[in-house]
Structures are given as C-alpha cells and as structure tokens.
Amino acid sequence: MNFEAVIGLEVHAQLATDSKIFCGCPARPPAGRSVAEIPPNANTCPICTGHPGTLPVLNEKVVDYAILAGIATRCSIRGKSVFARKNYFYPDLPKGYQISQYDEPICEKGWLEIQALPTSPDKRIGINRIHMEEDAGKNVHAHGYSLVNLNRAGVPLIEIVSEPELSSAAEAGAYLRSLHAVVTYLGISDGNMQEGNFRCDANVSVRPAGQKEFGTRVEIKNVNSFRFVEKAIDYEIQRQIGVIEGGGKIVQETRTFDSNKNVTISMRSKEEAEDYRYFPDPDLIPVRVTEARVNRLRSELPELPDAVKRRFMTELGLSAEDAAALTSTRDLALFFEEALQALSETGIDRAKGAKALANWLTGEVGRLLNESGVEIRNSRLTVVHLADLVRVTLEGAVSSTGAKQALSEAWSTGESIPAVVARLGLKQVSDLGELEPAVEKVIAAFPGQAAEFRAGKEKLLGFFVGQVMKATGGKANPALLQELVAKKLKQMGDS
Question: What CATH architecture applies to the domain 432-494?
Fold first, then answer.
C-alpha cells in the first residue's frame, strides 16, 4: 500500500521587544550577551512569575509585531481579538495557566509560498492563524532533580499555525525557512533557533494515498533546527507506516526528537483543546485594532524576501537557486547588496560582479559560516573583504586558489585582502616578460611531448600549462598562460 503524509506546523517565534508581554521585565539579554549569561530568575517580577493579586498589562509593541506578521503572510487582521487562559500545570508555568488566544486570534487565513527543491514548482501553504501568547519558563534537568529558570516566562510569542497542507519533510523545511526569513526581515524576531527564539511543533500523520480522511496525528514537540525538523518528520513518517503495515494503530501522542539517535520518542498522550479549559482572561480587555493602525503598519513594511529574490533575478540576472540562498536571511541579503555596491564603485560590471559575489557567498563563504556556526554579521568578514576578493579575481590579479587562501586568512584574522595578498605573495604573474622564459624552459624540458602536441595531440596543452604553473608556484595567470604556451609550442616547433 502506498501512503502519503499530512503535515501541519505550529511555529513559536519570540518577539524582539525590549520588555515582556504583560510586565516591564527585560524580554531578552542586553546587546552582546547571550541568554546563558543571564543569571537564573534575574529577569522576573511578581507578574511574570504568577503571584496572586497581580494584574497583566499588555505591551502595545507586541500587538504591532503580530499585525506585521499577519500582513506579511497575507492574513486577515481581526478588529477584535481576545486573550484566553489556557489551563495546564507544569513546573515552568507558575500560574497554572498560560495567557494565549483561542477562538478569536489577532490574525487568520493567510498563506505562504514555498519551493521545496530548486526543481519543484511553487506551492501555496495556508496559514490558519497567528496569535499572541506568553512563553513559559524553562526546566533545567540535573542528576536526580530539576530546577526552574523563569527568565523566559512572559516573553512575548506569536504562534503561527499552518494548515495541514505540507506533504514531505522537504516541504516542511522550505516552509520553516521561508517563515523564518519573513519574521527576521520584518525585524520582529531575532530568529535565533539555538536559543529557542524560533521553534517548531510538527503534527504528522499518514494515510493511504488518495484517502480524504486524515490519519491519527502525532505531535513532535519543540524542534529548534531546520535540519532536525526534516529528520524528525522523515523518521516519524516511516515509523507510522511501519506500525500500520505491522497491523498496529497510531496513538495520538506528543513525542520528542532525539537528535543523537535521529528518532522520535514518546513523551505523553496528546491533550485535545477542550482539555485546556480555555476561557477569556478576566484581567485583560479585548484587543481592538483599527483599520488606520493596520494601514500605518502596512506602509512601514520593509521589502520582504520574496520581493528581494525576484529583484535579484530580474535586475541582476541571478538564478532562482542563488537568489533564494542569498535571501535566506536579511543579514546575508544586505551583505550581498552592500558588497555589490562597493564592487560597482570600482568599475566592475554590475551583473558580472553580482554573479561572482553570489558564487563566493553560496560557496566558500557559506562553507566557512556553516563550519563555524556563526552568522555573517558576527564574523570578521566585512563587505570590503568580499568586494576586494571578487575584484582581484575578476581583474586576474589573484588565482581562484590564491583567493581562497586570502579569504581563509581574512576570515581568521580580519586582515584586509590586499594586505593578505601582499604578505603571502599571492599576486598572479601576468607579465609576459616574466612568463616567457618559464614557458620556454618547460617546453625545452619535454621535447617528446612538444612534438606530440605539434603532431595533433592537443590535449597535451594542459600538461604544459600545469608544468609552468608548478614552476611558477601557481602564480601564473591561467588564461594568459594557456594562450602563451600554445603560441610558444608552435613557434619553437617552427624554429
């Protein structure tokens, strides 16, 4: 029997406000510090820790950020939305309930367009709703006991709930990357997955191909990496198919993903919405959003990743694959555009410079970023570094091998490209007066191969070019060298 997967994603994005959603406590670390550097329970007060008698006050910026997310994902914005109490008890939720939104969310019925693979057609994925809520704290598990850090309690979130319209792990990954790009381009979320600023719950079920009814769904909780989400979904699809084919039944439950073993593990049976006993929060009045407010925020919307991608393709002639890679984060797209501007000011053709920059950013620079695990804004590499690197390669002053070496040095030390090239002697030899003696010496050293070349064995041209490159320490200009070797082979034969 052939099976098909049905996948829906619930994404929690922490909002980049200075203070929490219902109190004045800091919502994130100061600039230059990480979450781990903040002492446990330092950013707390009686409101976010749920003391009796305290009253929440809504952070207005949270509402604006939620509306921006809704506009960017083509959602309808409700004129009236309501906060509700979602009742459940965990150690990291002192009140015994979470303030969220239920049947009247602030945004609903939008969509996002994705492309799972470079060769795949575009696919529209519906967004059921976007609602505002507070985050819970964090349990810290040690040997034989657990502690609770409530710094995160009350940090503002938006939850973005997709329709169950994804059908593969690759589509889920593409959707998450697109959504991550949207919230970071808007500037409403840092999107740092390692710190839990952008995390995902995946609802996965399988059914016989062509069947309309959904299978029993399983929720995979709090996965904080694009790659891990894809691996978790792939594993869960195969697990469920195996259970069904073995005569078993899928149980509705919550599972977690073990990234070391690449398996999902059962945590608990899954609660239904009615088990949370939602009811309107009596301490918070309904949120009223005017059309004027929505229009004002719409006018402030920055250029979003899809629009930037189209511009890179139409104005710069980049491929869809390169444009998608360069617009995967706002920082990378800005870095590319600023480097292109710097390069254009040196007289390099804009289209040629754009393609070369794209090759470096999606190739060698991308590899360095992945290996180091840092964002480009946090690296030593600057716009000037990359513009200089492309300029010296396009001008033929440095070979591709030498350019990679120069990039590696600049990446490690922050030293300028011209300084690295000078210090390491990476400049290519393009002086005919310097190259001719080296070429003539190599040809003279291999008379047999020279004769074979002149007899028609033209593949030997590469052999001679390689020998001269070896003799010059790889510094000879390859294009110039190839032309010179061919000319000298013929001349020396005629003589």
Answer: Orthogonal Bundle (1.10)
